[in-house]
Structure prediction request, 512 residues.
Amino acid sequence: MDDLFKKITGHCKEYGFVYQSSEIYDGLAATYDYGVYGSLLKNNIKEYWWKSMVQMHENIVGIDAAIFMHPKTWKASGHVDAFNDPMIDNKDSKKRYRADQLIEGAMEKIEAKIIKDVEKARKRFGDAFDENEFRSTNGRILDRQKNIDENLKRMNNALRNEDMDDLKAQIEELGIACPESGSKNWTEVRQFNLMFSTQLGAVAGDDGKIYLRPETAQGIFVNFLNVQKTSRQKIPFGIAQIGKAFRNEIVARQFIFRMREFEQMEMQFFVKPGTQKEWYEKWKETRIKWHKALHPDSSLRFHDHDNLAHYADAAVDIEFQFPFGFRELEGIHSRTDFDLSSHQDLSGKKLQYFDPEEKENYVPYVVETSIGCDRMFLAVMSHAYTEETVPDAKGNDSERVVLKFHPALAPIKCAVLPLLKNKEELTDKAREVFNKLKMHVNCYYEEKDNIGKRYRRQDAIGTPYCVTIDFDTLEDNTVTLRDRDTMEQTRISVDEVVEIVKKKCDMTQLFA
Ligand code: GAP
Prediction:
């Protein structure tokens, strides 16, 4: 799986999807730039999310709030006091780690031993093997599982109670060494605030200290009344937003999975107090459907939070099986009235809704859906990346790497390829088709190299369709339409190209 992940990250760079930021200066850790095809793919992901949320729901409207907000925003939201991760340094390697991730890593190693034992037994017993029974009766596995459960429980308690001493004690008792140096020479565990701060130009000192937003949600909360009044929405209704967020992650790793600058797609759904549980369930269902519409065969699961954030009364992650295992892709949080009430208290401005049916004012409760656009990009990439052996033009086996994106998300929808480069009658006709098509979809014109090589290049960037103009085209006004996944070629009229490609790549099939 490590190997697969390396291949995906290598492919992203080689084919213009993602580059290391400031690469010529050896890069800046955990920041990435989206390249030629990456930026197109990312825009398509955002469009899929935005249209599903805003266009498809009469009661959801969108905004685009500023990244900088009044510093009191972050006091009210709890981020100044509670948006921390427990940090520990190794005195010998000078490397910094998250204490909870070190403990989780040690537990993953024990889990790996369990999996090894299970696989051994599977081989030994063959078809008769019952994994559940084996796990629940084998003494060694039961001891190891107990060890994992007890340690995770203790860690979660320590996190909840902000007991940094106990986290340190646990690291020592488990004999955890620095992955870099092998040393066990640790500092104390300390809380580390994840917000980036900067200084307003016009104001000196602490008064001018402002933050780069660590979540987009607060831009929605502080605008709640503005939006409700100007859009004339009635509760229940939602406000959606896509935008950058910044977190000074202690350990940022796994490519674009955990970055210091990333993009979120968030929606706050404002509901009547007491109905939040119902809406929480509804949004869990709606969001998993969104993922399944795109990747019906993907491995997704729900994972309830063990430790609730300071604002939540229920929270669940939608986890996706990345090449490095199941990890959080999206969060659905029942945020109570925490944010609106805190802003109301600190600002002294009422953030209430007058319910015309109940004839009363109240601070609405909020159910939030929050997905990282970059994580979704990595999920889409991981799902699409395929290595295959397929017949070449002579019928011999050949290897290809193909990105099997859903056509609606593919960066380029169709490549237009004249069979030969130096035949003006072919290139003129191909340009004519290209010029018509580019009015409707992102397409690509290419005449260099033989047609087989050109198909492979389009496979590698995930182009679902290729249109080839050959000598028959000049006779009967038809072209071949090649399907990326089946590699089947069908003959269609030039007049049909635009409509067929548009229909096959239409996003409405996902909404349906
Ligand atoms: N407003 C709620 C909120 O921000 P979160 O679980 O901290 O909740 C929501 O973040 C989503 O943002 C995550 O599910 C993940 O997809 C994405 N995300 C969070 N931190 C990230 C990071 N450092 N890099 C990339 N994506 C991140």
In short: The domain at 1-80+194-387 is CATH 3.30.930.10 (BirA Bifunctional Protein; domain 2).
